[in-house]
Every structure is written in C-alpha cells, then in structure tokens.
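Chain A, query sequence.
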Amino acid sequence: MSSTEQSQRGLRGGDYTEINIAEKDSGPNYTYHVEPAAQGGARYARCMGCGRELITSFGVDQLVHADDCPVRSNC
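Chain A, predicted structure.
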C-alpha cells in the first residue's frame, strides 16, 4: 500500500475525508477528519502527538492523550 493510500485510511480501516476546520483553541496539534457515512459521518480530531482520536462535538479538550504524548504537556 502506498503512503497516499495509507493516508486515506481511517483508524478503523475505513476511508475518511480530511478537512481543514479552525477549532477554537485547538492550535496546530490536531488534524480534523470526517468518518465515512457508514461509520456515522461524525467529525473527529486526531492528536498529532499520540494519534488518539475524539469526536469533535465532545471538544478536543476532552481527549485523553497517551502518557508520553508531547501535546499532553501543552494542554
């Protein structure tokens, strides 16, 4: 699988659409995506430090980062 194909795969193996959304106070530490419609179509944020994801309607401040995540210390 090429790196382009890998970047188009979601964490659960489904395709996702990458979107650019300015979220208040989220800074450059997150990328924003939309789940495939078959998985609910929800917008979600992925931490660039640890890769953990959270549906954006919960607010990125609720994301539980990995213990060794460099973004965690900035929260």
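The first strand starts at residue 17 and ends at 19. Residues 1-12, 18-25 have pLDDT under 50 and may be disordered.
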